[in-house]
Design goal:
The structure is a single chain. The protein is an alpha/beta fold. The chain has two domains: 7-124 and 302-322 and 351-369, NAD(P)-binding Rossmann-like Domain (Rossmann fold); 127-291, Dihydrodipicolinate Reductase, domain 2 (2-Layer Sandwich), CATH 3.30.360. Helices cover 32% and strands 22% of the residues. It has helices at residues 18-24, 41-51, 58-63, 79-88, 103-116, 130-141, 175-192, 305-316, 324-343, 363-369, and strands at 7-12, 31-37, 69-72, 92-95, 120-122, 147-155, 195-203, 208-210, 220-222, 228-235, 240-246, 257-261, 264-268, 278-282, 289-291, 347-348. The strands form three sheets. A nine-stranded mixed sheet has the order 15-14-13-12-6-11-10-7-16. A five-stranded parallel sheet has the order 2-1-3-4-5. A hairpin with a 4-residue loop joins strand 10 (228-235) and strand 11. It is globular. It binds nicotinamide-adenine-dinucleotide. The site of nicotinamide-adenine-dinucleotide (NAD) has 22 residues, from helix 4.
């Protein structure tokens, strides 16, 4: 694919997820990695050597005029601080999820980006994947009818069985809602539009959890967040979604997503992936029909698609899809789970958001499909 010009990207945060980005970025010629940085220089050096890149100190990366976008892959607690430093350095920022660990700090970042006239983008971008865009096309075509209800289900025994340093998942800013909620809620907003209100109940069944993964195997970590959350989301459209997000479930057999329309029920695949099997069924049929995605980005990991869309949007002077406004709305919804659980009250959502444009209309999709 030919691009007008490449957009310079600097990466801050060279931990676990950075390799997925560094591999996937190769799919998008619009992105040019200028250098990587981490507050632990040895981690940045190692990652740079692995991918044939240059490692520099964080301040040097922020000062480099070739860097137009900072890809912020630090831990959730550092997202806003690093984001604000990026904006102060006059650069666009695209961050891993969640946008921040509180709505107030996320809003501060969104306001700072707007005031500076800079772009703010945020993961997740999996809603741009082929299966989720195909689900969006189904909803938009009217084939599903009015979506009345549905379920969103994420549950696992916790990340302490695989992540090399899992403590942040249980500290303030962690928990299943802030960790996995972004995938589910973002995809729901992509499909159904903005959330109007949230109700929830939540629990922390273990105040200390053992670590099973190396190198901290055998140690314990404190738990400062709800780890089992059950909520209800009412969308402005009227749709009511029952959501469960949990790190306390040994095993289960629920699907990630079911949507119940007035014409069709739809099984949407895991919103943590770009592809997967999308299925539909009307009341008159016994079997589910598999809807094969005709759209790109359906089979492999394209973590960085949202960043590439933002780079194209900069060049084309159009809105990007994985936007700060979308991430801020999702953050407000996630915080509302906690507030609703603590107060027993329904929480009204205040931030406006528009559904991002379908990717099928984008220059990236056209280029990839050709
Ligand atoms: N691990 C995954 O599978 C996964 C998947 C999807 C999204 N994410 C998200 O990606 C982000 C990073 O997760 P991870 O698993 O790579 O974490 P990690 O702890 O492995 O890596 C984070 C890196 O950021 C660096 N860092 C932290 N604060 C910094 C700061 N202020 N300035 C510079 N560097 C700083 C750390 O030194 C570390 O190397 C999180 O927001 C997480 O939610 C992770």
């Amino acid at each position: 694919m030919s691009v007008e010009r490449r957009v310079g990207v600097g990466i801050i945060g060279c931990g676990n997820i950075s390799s997925q980005y560094l591999k996937a970025i190769r799919n998008f010629p619009v992105l040019e990695i200028i250098a990587v940085a981490d507050m632990r220089p040895e981690i940045a050096d190692k990652k740079a050597a692995e991918f044939g890149l240059k490692a520099v100190p964080v301040d040097a990366l922020l000062a480099d005029p070739k860097v137009e976008i900072i890809l912020n892959l630090t831990i959730p607690r550092a997202h806003v601080e690093v984001g604000l430093r990026t904006i102060a350095a006059g650069k666009h920022v695209y961050a891993e999820k969640p946008l921040g660990i509180t709505f107030a700090e996320g809003k501060k970042l969104a306001d700072a980006a707007k005031a500076a006239g800079l772009r703010l983008g945020s993961a997740p971008d999996t809603f741009l994947g082929g299966a989720h865009q195909e689900a969006r096309a189904l909803v938009d075509s009217g084939a599903v009818g009015d979506v009345v209800g549905g379920t969103a289900f994420f549950a696992c025994p916790g990340h302490e069985r695989w992540h090399p340093d899992p403590a942040f998942y249980y500290d303030v800013g962690g928990g299943p809602v802030l960790d996995m909620g972004p995938y589910y809620i973002t995809d729901l907003v992509n499909l159904l539009g903005p959330v109007a209100r949230v109700q929830a109940m939540a629990a922390t069944p273990q105040l200390e959890r053992p670590i099973y993964s190396e190198p901290r195997k055998g140690q314990t970590m404190p738990v400062k967040v709800f780890t089992h959350v059950a909520g209800l989301l009412q969308f402005k459209s009227g749709a009511i979604i029952q959501a469960t997000l949990s790190f306390d479930v040994p095993a289960h057999a629920h699907l990630p997503f079911e949507l119940y329309g007035s014409t069709l029920s739809v099984l949407v695949p895991d919103p943590n992936n770009f592809g997967g099997e999308l299925k539909t069924r009307p009341a008159t049929e016994k079997d589910w029909t598999v809807v094969t995605s005709k759209l790109p980005y359906a089979d492999t990991s394209y973590r960085s698609l949202g960043l590439a869309d933002m780079a194209h949007a900069i060049l084309e002077n159009r809105p990007h899809r994985a936007s700060g406004d979308l991430a801020l709305h999702v953050l407000e919804v996630m915080e509302a789970f906690e507030t609703a659980a603590k107060t027993g009250q329904s929480v009204e959502i205040t931030t406006p958001v528009e559904r991002p444009a379908p990717l099928s209309q984008s220059v990236i999709a056209r280029a990839a499909a050709s």
